[in-house]
């Protein structure tokens, strides 16, 4: 399996949902960078399962243990290795799923690809649980980026058909980002958040699940981050964001909306600010021109599908018997992935941006 990302700052994620531990090795970080492990832990806590009614009931402390790579709290040139124990596994929930693949999950494709040798318990290496080490790596990268004047924050833009307000793609500030990120249910408008919680609760009661969209933004980027073709901002960010399980779409700036605009509507017009800085009046391009940062806020929207494991009866097959059958998934599942995935998208963006920033240096 290939679970590594990055050219300068490289991460490699290991473990399975029900193995002894999961973790990440981070290589190529700039040296002498102080890493506040308590702040990193707080970042991970935003994703941790088992904390509220719209999360899986599986309770994990997600305490990170850094076993190497920091000396006197600073990056020292050696790779950081961080481990997170799996403490609350219940593998019996998965006994029948080896034979009857869940519609929408990776059971079927993993079974065929790995000839039945894959660890199917808890989704194995395909589990959303693997976003815990992704968040640790992201938290480390975020701290380094903050020191270079770059801030990242995300919010829930929609759940099912309920929408929150969008970020102001031109004038979004660091303070606004910090405020939304500090919320337990991160929406800009609290009323929209309450409606979303009710939608998730209803889906859960009906044995169903819902999806949604996360909007994430980076501000303070200098002009020039991103390499040609395959290593442009869009390419790099898409590649890491699609590593988050259940992501099915990503948009930059106006995204799919550009298809219905005229050039005169979509072009972002340049002007010179009093400071002498060149900016654009609008931000349909979402901060990326030619895959290179323009200095405007970098705006992405990520679509998450509804959680595949639901208790409604659904058609599947028995692989052993070679027969059609039906399945109602039991066990502990998120009725909606989106609320816990907010820091995952921030983390993915931070890792990709630090990797590209180090090339830009
Ligand atoms: C934070 C997080 C939590 C998730 N929780 C669940 C879950 O409880 N049950 C489930 O079936 N899928 C869950 N998923 C999604 C599956 O892991 C994912 O759909 C599956 O691995 C198949 O991958 P794909 O959807 O990207 O194709 C979660 C994903 C994330 C990011
Ligand atoms: C444990 C986490 O989420 C898990 C993600 C997940 C999946 O299929 O992705 C399925 C469930 O696993 P289990 O059946 O072992 O409880 C979730 O609880 C986590 O995010 O830390």
Automatic annotation (TrEMBL):
Catalysed reactions, as listed in the record: 5-O-(1-carboxyvinyl)-3-phosphoshikimate = chorismate + phosphate
Tell me if Lyase is a UniProt keyword of this record.
yes
Query: Which Pfam family, giving just one, matches this sequence?
Result: Chorismate_synt
Pathway participation: Metabolic intermediate biosynthesis; chorismate biosynthesis; chorismate from D-erythrose 4-phosphate and phosphoenolpyruvate: step 7/7
Q: What are its E.C. numbers?
A: 4.2.3.5
- GO BP term, pick one: chorismate biosynthetic process
The record's listing under Gene3D superfamilies reads: Chorismate synthase AroC
**PANTHER family, sorted:** CHORISMATE SYNTHASE
Q: Could you give the subunit structure recorded for this chain?
A: Homotetramer.
Write down what this protein is called: Chorismate synthase
Q: Per the UniProt entry, what species is this protein from, by scientific name?
A: Anaerotignum neopropionicum
């Amino acid at each position: 399996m290939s679970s590594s990302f990055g050219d300068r700052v490289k991460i490699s994620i290991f473990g399975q949902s029900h193995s002894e531990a999961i973790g990440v090795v981070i290589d190529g970080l700039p040296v002498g960078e102080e890493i506040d492990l308590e702040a990193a832990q707080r970042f991970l806590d935003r994703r941790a399962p088992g904390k509220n009614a719209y999360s899986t009931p599986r309770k994990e402390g997600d305490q990170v243990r850094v076993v190497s790579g920091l000396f006197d709290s600073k990056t020292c040139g050696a790779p950081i290795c961080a481990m997170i124990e799996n403490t609350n596994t219940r593998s019996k929930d998965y006994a029948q799923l080896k034979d009857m693949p869940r519609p929408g999950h990776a059971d079927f494709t993993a079974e065929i690809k790995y000839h039945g040798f894959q660890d199917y318990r808890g989704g194995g290496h395909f589990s959303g649980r693997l976003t815990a080490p992704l968040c640790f790596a992201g938290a480390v990268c975020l701290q380094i980026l903050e020191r270079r004047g770059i801030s990242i924050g995300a919010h829930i833009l929609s759940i099912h058909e309920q929408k929150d307000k969008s970020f102001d793609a031109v004038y979004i500030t660091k303070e606004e980002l910090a405020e939304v990120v500090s919320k337990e249910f991160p929406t800009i408008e609290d009323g929209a958040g309450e409606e979303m919680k009710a939608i998730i609760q209803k889906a859960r009661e009906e044995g169903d699940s819902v999806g949604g969209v996360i909007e994430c933004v980076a501000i303070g980027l200098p002009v020039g981050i991103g390499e040609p073709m395959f290593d442009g901002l869009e390419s790099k960010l898409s590649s890491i964001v699609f590593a988050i399980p259940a992501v099915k779409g990503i948009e930059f700036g106006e995204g799919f909306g550009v298809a219905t605009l005229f050039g005169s509507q979509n072009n972002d017009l340049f002007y010179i600010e009093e400071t002498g800085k060149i900016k654009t009046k609008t931000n349909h391009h979402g901060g990326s021109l030619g895959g290179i940062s323009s200095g405007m806020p970098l705006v992405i929207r990520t679509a998450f599908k509804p959680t595949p494991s639901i208790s409604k009866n659904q058609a599947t097959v028995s692989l052993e018997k070679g027969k059609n059958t039906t399945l109602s998934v039991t066990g502990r599942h998120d009725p909606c992935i989106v609320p816990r995935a907010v820091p995952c998208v921030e983390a993915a963006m931070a890792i990709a941006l630090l990797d590209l920033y180090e090339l830009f240096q």
